[in-house]
Amino acid sequence: MPRLRILSAAGLIAVLLLSLFTPPAGVYDTEYGGRSPKMVPTKPGGVPSPAPTPEATFIIPTPAQSPVQPTKAIGPTAPPVPTRRAEEPYRITAYPTRAENAQASARFATTIVIGTVRQVQPSRWTTPNGQRPANPHAIANSQSIYTPVLLDVAQYLKGVQPQAQLLLFAVGGALGADYVARSDNLFAFSEGERVLLFLDAPAR
Questions:
Q1: pLDDT truncated to tens, each residue of the chain (204 aa)?
Q2: Hey, which CATH number is domain 4-11+90-199, 2.40.50, 1.10.287, 1.10.10, 2.60.40?
Q3: Rounded to whole angstroms, how far apart are CA atoms 177 and 128?
């Protein structure tokens, strides 16, 4: 019996950046005893100056601060990295930083299927005509390489479709001297291979 291989789409990593803010000296907006505390100017060295007032006065010393001196760059700045020539090979290998999580993949996938790979078609670029862009090394380039894969569906586990076959767009592939790949070969398919796939519908 052929072995079932499980493949999932790339997961989502959310990074939450927490910043701590300290109120500047002279600001104190918390009410106390029904009165808004007042800040008292301070002398150099953080010594508060007297400020008689009929209301309750809260004195919060502030440390003396030295004026910030502007900094200057040391040594010459590095020259910008030149764009590689268009004729140079485009070779990208992605190295995943974490293992795929089946539960997360199942939650985010629009379709989950079990099937057998019928055909692995020639790789192509994501350009409208499938051809290599003018210069894939250009900073503005958003094109990449993918491989069409025809799958015979044995069972839909989520997102049932009427089709008995699905045409998949697997990230990566090779075209001449150019290639895009993952270090773990997650999206590399072989004809006759039986797979469990977590799929995302293409953006329209």
A1: 445 666 654 432 222 222 333 333 333 333 333 333 444 444 444 444 444 444 444 444 545 555 666 666 666 776 776 778 999 999 999 998 877 788 888 988 999 999 999 999 999 999 999 999 999 999 999 999 999 999 999 999 999 989 999 999 999 999 999 999 999 888 899 999 999 999 987 665
A2: 2.40.50
A3: 21
DSSP state of 3: P
Q: How far apart are CA 133 and CA 143, in angstroms?
A: 7
Domain ranges of the chain: 4-11+90-199, 26-61
3-state DSSP: the chain helix, strand, coil percent, rounded to 5?
5, 30, 65
Q: How far apart are CA 145 and CA 90, in angstroms?
A: 10
Tokens of 84: 């590689």
Q: What pTM value is reported for the model?
A: 0.59
Structure tokens at 73: 């760059």
How do 178-182 and 91-94 pair as beta strands?
parallel
Q: Are 6 and 105 in contact (CB under 8 A)?
A: no
Give, for 105, the enclosing helix (H) or strand (E): helix 102-108
| Cα-based torsion angle of the residue sequence 75, 80, 85, 90 in order, rounded to the nearest 10 degrees | 100
Distance between CA atoms of 27 and 202, rounded to whole angstroms? 52
